[in-house]
Write a structure and sequence with these properties.
By secondary structure, the chain is mostly helical. The chain is built from nine helices and three strands. It has two domains: 76 residues, Orthogonal Bundle (Multidrug-efflux Transporter Regulator, Chain: A, Domain 2), CATH 1.10.1660.10; 89 residues, no CATH class. The protein has a three-stranded antiparallel sheet with strand order 1-3-2. α1 crosses α2.
Length: 182
């Protein structure tokens, strides 16, 4: 989950078993991205040791060497997050917040806005752990996860909105008050 990305992956405890969520947490990536890697059979992700009704499962000794390799590769190759992507995430988060405040809610537009914001998650997750990347991860954390329940979504999204100004500040954008009406 992106929310866990603020914690360095090296501090993650070793486990006896890993599912998609635990792998994502250990790598500081989103569950979505790890699921895509598995589905596409990319990045050398080993086949799971077993499949449960809740999903694939790996034994620690099977997956931990791969996790260590991926961590090493990401430390050297993760690109910085593009400021344009960061600002796009801000706009999409603000749109989602506005739709969450409407009464009655327009579910089709709400679902579309949520989907558009989630489209950015793999790009955000694959970026480096610089100041901009951390700020954007904190901003979009409320919508990360595989089909995260929407209960409490309004509260979580609204609570994350102060991060918009931090993302804009870190991205290098400047505010200018033109004095005109919006």
């Amino acid at each position: 989950m992106i929310a866990s990305m603020g914690r360095p992956a090296a501090t993650q405890p070793r486990r006896a078993f890993y599912g998609i969520a635990e792998i994502a947490d250990a790598l500081g990536l989103s569950r979505q991205l790890v699921t895509v890697w598995r589905r596409r059979r990319s990045h050398g992700l080993p086949e799971p040791d077993a499949e449960l009704s809740s999903g694939p499962i790996w034994q620690g000794e099977t997956i931990e060497p791969w996790i260590d390799d991926v961590r090493g590769q990401r430390d050297h190759s993760a690109p910085p997050l593009d400021a344009a992507v960061a600002l796009r995430a801000c706009r999409r988060m603000l749109r989602l917040a506005a739709l969450l405040l409407e009464q009655p809610p327009r579910l089709r537009l709400l679902s579309q806005a949520l989907g558009e914001l989630r489209e950015l998650l793999p790009t955000i997750a694959a970026s480096s752990e610089d100041e901009l990347g951390r700020a954007v991860r904190a901003l979009v954390a409320p919508v990360d996860g595989d089909g995260a329940p929407t209960s409490g979504l309004r509260h979580r999204v609204l609570a994350a909105l102060p991060m918009v100004s931090e993302v804009v500040r870190v991205s290098g954008e400047s505010f200018s008050d033109t004095g005109g009406a919006d």
